[in-house]
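Severity: low
Component: inverse-folding endpoint
Summary: output formatting inconsistent between runs
Steps to reproduce: submit the following structure tokens with default settings.
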């Protein structure tokens, strides 16, 4: 049977979930992750912070190799602070949400300049640092310093909304979920408890087909008792931005050089490397696309349209790009504000995923290895 909860949700009459039961489960089944400190060792705040920034809106599987490369190149916050932003962006290339990389670099410099290279140990001070919001501040405070803080990510939201059968839709339900999760957080082992909640959501309390019979809170879960766990959390339908279109211009010299430019430091994909492209607009007219091509003293007849389009989805809008390619003599000078880079070095350039798609679509080299310079007019398989 079910009983009413003060928050307006419901719980099972068997009682509230036990933090001790979840911690005992975590001690037996905790995930082995590159950034997770072994039991008994004190976490390094720098590594906790680095992993939490990378994990924002990104899967553990995708983050792991990036994290290890970053740590190898920047083993301390001081090493990261002393690096050039361009190098940071190159290591970040492909991970997406590039504002995180810029904030990562700014935060490292702030920690060194204002805190002598040591991360503050309380949520309020952490939130004053660049790129650190409520969730990340709580995660660092709890995991790195064992402070009584409760980070709420998607996994935790799923666990809590099922545990208490929270009917209110997200994101409106976030304050209620936060209050319920904070009510569960124990005074001791807050960091382990935070990671236990995340692990529970990532493994047993999955979005589809949750493994309820293995859950340490099976007898306390209202949604499981009702038989509708998969319907939680309730979510308001997301509004998708209108499709934008544009054109990308891939220019390759006979000596294996690709024409690129650097995007403005602020804004979408700030500071990243891209091939020249048109403006992205809802009313883009493909018939006039070449009017926005880079000025290279070649007629429109020298451009050839690559069949098909490149599709990419940003957080707020989908994008569709037509791709044009032109091949130029080896000593062609770049237009103002642009530069040539070796096709063989593309794998180490700070190219966002949408640009990598464009380059691959135009059959330019291979971003995973160092190809030979393409011959004039030659095409490479993807």
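Observed output (run 2 of 3):
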């Amino acid at each position: 049977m079910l009983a009413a909860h003060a928050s307006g949700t419901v719980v099972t009459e068997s009682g509230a979930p036990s933090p001790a039961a979840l911690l005992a489960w975590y001690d037996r089944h905790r995930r082995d992750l590159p950034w997770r400190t072994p039991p008994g060792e004190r976490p390094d705040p720098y590594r906790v912070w680095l992993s939490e920034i990378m994990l924002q809106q990104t899967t553990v599987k995708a983050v792991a190799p990036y994290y290890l490369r970053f740590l190898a190149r920047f083993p301390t916050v001081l090493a990261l602070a002393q690096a050039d932003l361009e190098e940071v962006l190159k290591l970040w290339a492909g991970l997406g949400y590039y504002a995180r990389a810029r904030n990562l670099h700014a935060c490292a410099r702030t920690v060194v300049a204002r805190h002598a290279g040591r991360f503050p140990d309380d949520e309020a001070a952490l939130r004053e640092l660049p790129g650190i919001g409520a969730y990340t501040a709580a995660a660092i405070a709890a995991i790195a310093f064992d402070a009584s803080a409760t980070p709420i990510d998607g996994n935790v939201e799923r666990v809590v909304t099922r545990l208490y059968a929270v009917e209110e839709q997200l994101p409106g339900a976030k304050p209620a979920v936060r209050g319920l999760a904070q009510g569960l957080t124990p005074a001791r082992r807050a960091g382990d408890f935070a990671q236990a909640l995340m692990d529970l959501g990532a493994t047993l309390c999955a979005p589809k087909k949750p493994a309820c019979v293995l859950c340490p809170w099976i007898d306390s879960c209202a949604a499981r008792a009702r038989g509708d766990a998969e319907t939680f959390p309730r979510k308001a339908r997301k509004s998708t931005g209108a499709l934008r279109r544009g054109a990308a211009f891939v220019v390759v010299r006979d000596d294996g050089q690709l024409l690129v430019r650097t995007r403005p430091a602020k804004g979408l994909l700030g500071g990243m490397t891209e091939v020249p492209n048109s403006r992205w607009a809802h009313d883009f007219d493909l018939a006039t696309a070449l009017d926005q091509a880079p000025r290279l003293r070649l007629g429109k007849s020298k451009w050839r349209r690559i069949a098909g389009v490149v599709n990419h989805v940003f957080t707020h809008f989908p994008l569709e790009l037509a791709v044009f390619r032109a091949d130029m003599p080896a000593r062609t000078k770049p237009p103002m504000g642009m530069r040539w880079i070796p096709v063989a070095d593309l794998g180490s350039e700070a190219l966002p995923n949408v640009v990598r798609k464009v380059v691959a679509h135009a059959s330019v080299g291979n971003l995973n290895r160092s190809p030979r310079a393409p011959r004039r007019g030659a095409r490479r398989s993807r």
